[in-house]
Amino acid sequence: MSRRHGIGMMAACVPDDRRNSPIYILVPEESVFMARFLEMEERLLHSLYYYHLETLAPHAADIVRGAYESWGEIQEKMPPLACWQELSNPAGVCRGAARAGYKLYGPDGNRLVSLHAVQVGTEHIRRLEACRDLLDETADGPGGPLAQALEEISEHDENAVHHFRRTVDVMRFPVPSLLLAPLRRAAPAGPVLEIDLNEAQQAAYLSYSDRVALTLSSGDDFAYAMHRALYT
């Protein structure tokens, strides 16, 4: 789609040295990242929390518990857009009323995948990072309760830990400063219903989305090409 005038689940963080200060993540209005974000809970955290938590060492249990709670807090911050609610609630039970977002355009008037700036607590991202690091260490270390739990989970989804790691990595990408200011005012969180990118902003948009698609594709050239095509 194009127009005459032209400025979901990818995400990224604005660096901030203050420990408990809020940060922004960018969430795309397309299904690939959102599916990966939901799989963090559905395929991994839910199982570890409800079925294996009591068997884990206290330190590991605390990290898993913190990651599970923080994932829920971040999900609650996601804009209640219909396309995401269909993914997270296939039975049609939505978290509040779904609302329309905004439309994003390039300088040539082409419609782009909208990005939403979502403010979350720094500590929530840190907890997900701690869980990512714990899972990586467990995968490389000797067997134990957590390793046994991950082995059971891998019988149903062998890529659960891998996808969790890459999704957390995406959530730590720096937010392009050229994009953050206009996106913070976009609907449904803000009043702006249409945003037109200029040439510099589009370059930042394409560079950012390329990095996200490359990370989530896990080295699969076809998956990368298909995901990347959503943003061009």
Q: Can you offer a commentary on this structure?
A:
With 232 residues, the protein is mostly helical. It has 9 helices and 7 strands. It has helices at residues 31-52, 58-77, 82-88, 122-140, 145-154, 160-171, 177-183, 199-216, 221-229, and strands at residues 12-13, 22-28, 103-105, 111-112, 115-121, 173-174, 194-196. The strands form 3 sheets. It has a 3-stranded mixed sheet, with no helix packed on it. Helix 1 packs antiparallel against helix 2, helix 1 (31-52) packs across helix 5 (145-154) and helix 2 (58-77) packs across helix 4. The termini are close together. The relative contact order is 0.20. Mean pLDDT is 86; it is low at 1-11 and 90-98.
Radius of gyration: 18 Å
Percent of residues in helical segments?
A: 40-55%
Characterize the overall form: elongated
The average pLDDT is: 86
Order of helices and strands: EEHHHEEEHHHEHEHH
Name the beta content range: 5-15%
Total strand segments: 7
Question: Secondary-structure map with pairings?
Answer:
Elements: E1 12-13, E2 22-28, H1 31-52, H2 58-77, H3 82-88, E3 103-105, E4 111-112, E5 115-121, H4 122-140, H5 145-154, H6 160-171, E6 173-174, H7 177-183, E7 194-196, H8 199-216, H9 221-229
Parallel strand pairs: 1-6, 3-7
Antiparallel strand pairs: 2-5, 3-4
